[in-house]
Every structure is written in structure tokens, then in C-alpha cells.
Amino acid sequence: MIRSLYSAATGMLAQQLQIDTISNNIANVNTVGYKKQRAEFADLMYQTMQYAGTSTSATTISPTGMEVGLGVRPTSIQKIFSQGNFKETSGSLDIAITGDGFFQIELPDGTTGYTRNGSFKLDNNGNVVTSDGYRLIPELVIPADATQITIGADGIVSIMQASQTVSTQIGQIELADFINPAGLHSLGDNNYINTAASGDVIVGIPGINGIGQTRQGFVELSNVQLVEEMTDLITGQRAYESSSKAITTSDEMLQTVNQLKR
Q1: Mean pLDDT for back-to-back runs of 10 residues, the chain (262 residues)
Q2: pLDDT of the residue at 237
Q3: What is the pLDDT of residues 198-250, one digit of tens each?
Q4: How far apart are CA 145 and CA 199, in angstroms?
Q5: Number of DSSP helices (H) and strands (E) in the chain, helices first
Q6: Could you give the C-alpha distances from 211 to 10, 169, 193, 215, 222, in angstroms and in order?
Q7: Alpha carbon of 171 to those of 1, 119, 151, 157, 255: distances in Å?
Q8: With contact defined as beta carbons under 8 Å apart, do 113 and 125 qualify?
Q9: Do 155 and 205 touch, CB atoms closer than 8 A?
């Protein structure tokens, strides 16, 4: 009887985590470069009351045995790095990645961070930076007299300057990739850092060796699908209510037992 109380309680805790994860996805439905997350679960250990194959007589064995589960536990929250939809902005420093890869940025502590948010800006020195002022790696500086910025699918950056009729190549955008992007550590602000689980960083030119290409004038929107999230939200809510009902039922059964003496 007590077993059912604890098992149902683990179910409520698991569904709470599910709702928390879904809520974060919904909150970031309009966040540029956001990648949705999915909570994953596994059943807990089982209390074996009779092993399958146990002899039931001199000539027969138990075909199934008896095992009672003890609930559920969270195992991971998986990052889903599927491609988000593109939105055209016509911004010369708005860059989307088609395919795999991340922009490299310099974090305040000097380490390298990674992001899918390609909505870049210029700082007071002409450096290409993120909305938080983190510099793009490799460093890219736009001259003050640049009248036009062109970024190719291969990441080559060219500019037109005043009084010039021929464009000048000033830099190359490089993208980073990982064997296991889901193993990256989320810092918030659309930024990640690599871990032992993500594997070593692979840096390359866009469009070469499986790395995605760059598209100027676009940003990649969140890959959250509201219909899916709302469906999962309803499912999680109903599962939470069911676990709560199981606790209520177990409590009523215990109450019945306690009243037997009357």
C-alpha cells in the first residue's frame, strides 16, 4: 500500500519536470536561435516477488514471474538541434546558418562560446559583436567608410567603400561543430560552451566537410512547434492529475484499513 504512495509521488515529480521543460520551450518560442528541449524518463528499480522461470512444480515453471515497479525518474533533458525556420530581415549583419554549426564568440572571461543566434551588431570600434557585445571569432572589423557589406554562403565577408567600384574581401567567418551538440552546456543568452560530452570542437569553413552555410539577411527562429508543445503540456498535466489520483486512492485504501477495527 505504501509502495503505491511513493511510486505515484515520483510520477508527480517527473511530470512537474516535464511541465517545467515545456514551459521553457513555450517561453522561448520567439527567441532567435533557441533550440527546444525534451525531458526523458526511465522506470525505477523493481521489487521482485517471484523470478520468471521459477519452478512452480516438479514439471512446470513460472512463465512471467512477479515484479512490482517503484516509480519513475528523470534521466536527461535532451537539446534538439533541428533546423529552425528562417526569417528575412534584410539586415547586413543578420546571418543564419543552414545546416550544422555554431558561430564562435569570445566570452567575457576569454573563453570561446558558441551560438546559433546570428543577429550581430557593430560596436564603437567597428567590431562585429553579439547583442551582449561579445566579439565574433575570428575577429571581424568593418571599416567606418564601408557602404555595403556582403557575406557569402562560404562565410567570406566583402565590403564596398566610399569612392571605390570594386569590393574588398576583409575576412572569413568560420563555424564550429561538435560530434554531440546535445552535450553542450547552456549558459543562457543563446550561448553554449563545450564539455567532455560534446566532444572536441571542429572548426571549418561554411559549406565544407558537413558544416552548414551562412545566409546573409536572415535569422534562424526557434525550432519550437507550439502545437507539439501544447499537446505535450496537456499530456503532462493529465499524467500529473492521474498520479495525484493514485495517491488519493491509496490514501482512501489506507483509511479503510484503519477503520476495520470499528
Answers
A1: 86 95 96 94 88 82 85 94 93 94 95 95 93 93 90 93 85 95 93 94 93 95 95 95 92 85 67
A2: 95
A3: 999 999 999 999 999 999 999 999 999 999 999 999 999 999 999 999 999 98
A4: 41
A5: 2, 20
A6: 42, 22, 18, 13, 20
A7: 69, 18, 10, 5, 75
A8: no
A9: yes
- The answer to whether the CB of 131 falls within 8 A of the CB of 138 is no
Q: Which residue do the cell numbers 528523470 mark?
A: 74
Give residue 90's region: left, alpha or beta (phi > 0; psi -120 to 50). left
pTM of the shown model: 0.86
Cβ atoms of 100 and 213 within 8 Å: the answer is no
Question: 60 Cβ partners below 8 Å, 6+ apart?
Answer: none
Q: How far is the C-alpha of 236 from the C-alpha of 20, rounded, in Å?
A: 10
Q: What is the 3-state secondary structure (H, E, C) of 55-119?
A: ECCCCCECCCCEEEECCEEEEEEEECCCCCCEEECCCCCEEEEECCCEEEEECCCCCEEEECCCE
Query: What distance in Å separates the CA atoms of residue 65 and residue 232, rounded to the nearest whole number?
Result: 34
**Which three cell numbers mark 211?**
558544416
- Rounded CA-CA distance 232/22 in Å is 7
